[in-house]
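hey can u check if this looks right to u? its 175 residues, i copy pasted from the old doc so theres a chance i mangled smth
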Amino acid sequence: MLESANDTFHATSNGDCVGSILTNPGLGVLQNNGGINRTMAPASPGPAVNAATGTCPPPATDQRDFTRPAGGACDLGALEVGATLVDTMSPACSVVAVVSGNPKAMDVRALDTGRGLAAISNPTVTNGTIVVPFFLPGTTQPVVLAAVKTNQAQATVWSFTAVDAASPANTKLCT
């Protein structure tokens, strides 16, 4: 957290990663920079970048859960400039339920317990419809899609891609 008093900025985090800036820290606008909260990114280069004194880390991650430090020292504030996400989990898919009756439907779950799902892309189906629910990008909660058959006498084939929030190149084709 950056606190201001007479153009002197002090970073505090329960005694971890502390420092002082005697000028405007050059923070950007409050916006989505990744993570679950909006943050203000410091200008790079800027007075808040690599400005922490003392032992840093802790904390080992910034407010967005990105790894710090990304440079020679930790940055002051909630956001570590140039930090990366560590994610060892890939998206996974599983059948939740097959609903009998007319029409026949199947619920399919997409889940990423690492950094969460960024998106469900390319939903395709023959002889049916796939319903993709609204969800917030980065969710680590299960996202359940419904695949509903149109013609009961014909086979239905469906697929979609679960996209990892940490690395959009890390995807899982679900069929």
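Residues 92-174 form one domain.
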